[in-house]
DNA sequence: ATAAATAAAGACAAGTATATCCTTTTATCT
DNA sequence: AGATAAAAGGATATACTTGTCTTTATTTAT
């Protein structure tokens, strides 16, 4: 469905939204540990997310790290996918034809049409902030470790 | 969304269902040309589809080629995905967690739940035959060439 | 039986994604 | 100013996917 890059990018962004802030920036080691991802690879992906401050903000040096601005929190999840070059999932044809359109539909287009719309809406109407909020309040998980019992 | 292998497998299978039969077996060169796919690579994929006659049937030698049995025509599209080892799309978590379940939901699970069900149904309720029929009667396309004008 | 056609199988090449490590830059603190 | 902490950037390694080519096995037709 999504590439590893996209998966890590989404998990990392959600974690940063949940635990970080301007005065509590998160280090790459903490992030990678929290979301069960390979640290150095995740660092590379963060570079894509921070390019031009598009999604994630960062500062170097002591007490540096990653955080999200208020504006970034309002971005749709799709922004994360775009940052890692993975938004094909909401644009491409299931059968891999160059174009997906009503005027040139593939055999699965009819069946897929509505699903594609819903995928699109899921990634465009859901904001980073709303995902983080859900995660904060619930029993939602963002890594592969066992859920802690109370 | 899907791998190239899966895309070619689906396009090839649909084409064979549409144009082939026991007494009109299709050669790999014809198939690859028809669906705009690299011939040798497609041949490899056909080997996966014909393993144990799971989806596609084949015979070698003069007048040999690929075709579908009546039983195969009734298979769900999912069978093609399984043959190429690509059915993760209907089983895995969007965020790449090891498990996708109600008891251990990721932050996107709630939003994705219904889409996942629909994807599953699309691949399980649609048969190879029904796709071929749609393709046969309509203006549906299965390659990247321009649609012929009448 | 021999020849020819065709898929199957195997070996390899190229490209892309994933992962790790090392060096450089920048910011902070003393 | 100097030391230190942290991300950014670059170089490299590994694995997987995609694509090509050659050889082998099998079937059919002559
Ligand atoms: S043309 Fe294939 S999904 Fe739209
Ligand atoms: S747990 Fe992530 S989609 Fe179900």
From TrEMBL, chains A, B:
Q: Which Gene3D superfamilies match?
A: Winged helix-like DNA-binding domain superfamily/Winged helix DNA-binding domain
One Pfam family it belongs to: Rrf2
Q: Spell out the molecular function terms from Gene Ontology.
A: DNA-binding transcription factor activity
Q: Which domain of life is it from?
A: Bacteria
GO CC terms of this entry = cytosol
What PANTHER family does this protein's entry cite? HTH-TYPE TRANSCRIPTIONAL REGULATOR AQ_268-RELATED, WINGED HELIX-TURN-HELIX TRANSCRIPTIONAL REGULATOR, RRF2 FAMILY
Q: Which NCBIfam families does the annotation name? A: rrf2_super
What is the protein's given name? Answer: Rrf2 family transcriptional regulator
Organism, by scientific name, is: Chitinophaga cymbidii
